[in-house]
Amino acid sequence: TSTENVLTKYKSMIQHSIPALELELSWFPTYMKPEELRRLHRPYLKPMRTGPHSEPVFKPVYSLERYVRRKESEREGERQKSGGGQVFFMRTREDISAKDGRLVLFEYAEEHPLLMSCIGMASRIKNYSKKGLNGDPVSCDHLKYGDQVYNTSPYFLGKLHPGQVLQVLDNNMYQSPAHQHTLPTTDFILARTAESFYIRMTSDIFAVGQQFPKILVPGPNSKRANQHTRNFLQVFIYRLFLESEDVPRRIKMDHIKAAFPAYSESSIRKRLKNCADFNRTGSDCGWWVLQDNFRLPSEEEIRKLVIPEDCCAFYSMQYAEQRLKDAGYGKSIKNVSDDEDEDDSEKILDDEVRIAPWTLTRTFSNALRGKCQLEINGIADPTGIGEGYSYLRVPNKPSVKSNKDVSKEKPNKSNEPKSTRTVMGTDSDLRRLTLKNAREVLRSFGVAEEKINSMMRWDVINMVRKLSTDKARMGESNETGKFARGAKYSLIEHQEKYKDECQRIFDLQTKVLSSTEVLSTDEEESTDEETNID
Amino acid sequence: MSRKKDEEDENQENLMILRLPEKYAQTVRQAVSKGNLRERLQVDIKDDCRNALLKIENDILSARIVDLPCIVECQKTVDNKTFYKSGDICQMLLVNEKPLNPEEAVRSQQIRKEKNEHKKFVYSHGVTPPFKNVRKKRFRKTAPKKIIDDPEVEK
What we know:
The structure holds two protein chains of two kinds.
Chain A: H1 18-21, H2 34-38, E1 59-63, H3 65-81, H4 93-96, E2 102-108, E3 122-129, E4 147-148, E5 165-170, E6 174-182, E7 187-192, E8 197-200, E9 204-208, E10 212-213, H5 223-243, E11 250-251, H6 253-259, H7 265-273, E12 276-278, E13 288-290, H8 299-305, H9 308-326, H10 330-333, H11 351-354, H12 357-368, E14 373-376, E15 390-394, H13 400-409, H14 435-445, H15 449-454, H16 457-473, H17 491-514, H18 523-532
Parallel strand pairs in A: 1-8, 2-9, 3-4
Antiparallel strand pairs in A: 3-5, 5-6, 6-9, 6-10, 7-8, 11-13, 12-13, 14-15
Helix pairs in contact in A: 5-8, 14-16
Chain B: H1 5-11, E1 14-19, H2 22-34, E2 41-45, E3 51-56, E4 59-77, E5 82-95, H3 102-107, H4 134-137
Parallel strand pairs in B: 1-5
Antiparallel strand pairs in B: 2-3, 3-4, 4-5
């Protein structure tokens, strides 16, 4: 069931590190307190109460150059030994450490990205290019990172222009355009471990654009979310049994309760009962002992029950929920539909709740399957200044609503007739326009008398609408402007416009995030400089 | 898996960006690549995890730990194609230009709690050029709920 969440078509060929697949507890917490959720992916440095860091003295910072080289040659040796092919090196926690290997930084454009990897998870860089106008393929060989991808386009709302090269950060949860920049020479990576400090250098940093999600974030208390917590608990229990060295294998309830404090003991017991028995007496008194006839799943099997992506999606939900609670929307979240297929868009929800990740990921996936269109310009745009997409739903068909939004967004550019006001019951209601008056309008447009007389009422009305609309579109407004109906332009026209708008934002984002121009400093910067001097 | 979470936290590498003044950066950069950094760079982070002192060769510099606006992922690669996430970076150790004179240095050994105002440690700029002033310019603002409807609001 877990893979159902991934849009399999876009699944990436990557393998996470082994500790990530095993959901290493410190990277995939079973439970987070509100303050931990607020800092999800923003871990602050905390004081250390014991060890060398608790002493108020200068501590040396180590350079790891020699260690890095040694590790590199060790890996190379192993590769040679295995025949020189691809070797999977990320097997332990230590392998994931920033102490060795080449380090590359990725700076995310979004303040609250929809989905983020946990430590130990893998991503790839894919290099896309589009043939030049002369039909010659464009090489990506000059790029330091990534694999060139042929014959496919990235999974984006915009297309590449002839000759354009675009790098993309890709994993099983999202794709994002990634633009390489150079880390200033004044900047280093400093790491604090329990024992000491070390320093690493890199010059490579990518600016990562808005995410195009591939998986769904579950809604709070949704079926999917509840299923995840159940599976996560089950997996935790299986692994505890696997780790047990006793014969028969046994575990303690307290262990589970400590990891899942939000769970009641009775619901944990429910999970335990199907594989273990509680002993009240004897040498196993107080222990849950694995049943004789229960076949404990192997580690490989357990890995399939909960994949790292499931956890990330769940954390994203928890993080958003915490943020909404903090902003005072706690009660409004409860109105969110539990049913994944039900559409929330008709319900009256606060904007902040409407743009929660569970809605946006679902809408995006629906739009990708052609079920709806995206709002594109609107409140869910994470930049707030029109440089990103708003993944909120609008119907596929041209509608009064979508026109209204467009004309509101860009009052200057829009030369569509304003057609959104209610016409019912007014003198511009076409249904109430009498045949006599309608003919009069046509005459004012200069339509030939014979033609007017030869038409039936609705043909006349249609013509009134068409001519008024044309006229209004050309920017002429007069008495007949009230009969103009903007929403009636064709479906194709509507879709073209949608595509153009998607492309416009795509190009704009590419331009902004790839720009290396250092923007002029403003007041903010100067006050910053002042506080530098203590 | 059964190990305690707090212990794990202590074992975790805490990553941050270290931004040195231009002239010290050069010294450190050369030393790191030559592999003779030895005791040339030393750090003492204060208990508040906001203020710090650095010793670069014979100079003592004051520094503070600021919060970066964007999430920065530190990923490692051994083949330049697949990247494994090593950690999240959200803070920067920002080192001041001018070295302290010896008296100041002694004084700043003491923790200055009173200076620990939150605002001072919020950094406006991302690391890459497009994210200059990103907090103000590019992040959509969350609209606060006018009437708090949830009795369980966590402060």
